[in-house]
Amino acid sequence: MFSRLKADIQAVFERDPAVKSALEAVLCYPGLHALWLYRLAHPLYKRGWFLLARVISNIARIFTGIDIHPGAEIGEGLFIDHGCGVVIGETAVIGNNVTIYQGVTLGGTGKEKGKRHPTIGNNVVIAAGAKLLGSFTVGDHSKIGAGSVVLQAVPPYSTVVGIPGKVVSRYGQRVKDEKTEKEEKAALNDDLMHNNLPDPVAEMLLAMQRDIRRLEERLAYLESRQQPASCSGDQSERAPGFEAEEKP
Question: Of all helices (H) and strands (E), which one includes residue 22?
Answer without folding.
Answer: helix 22-28
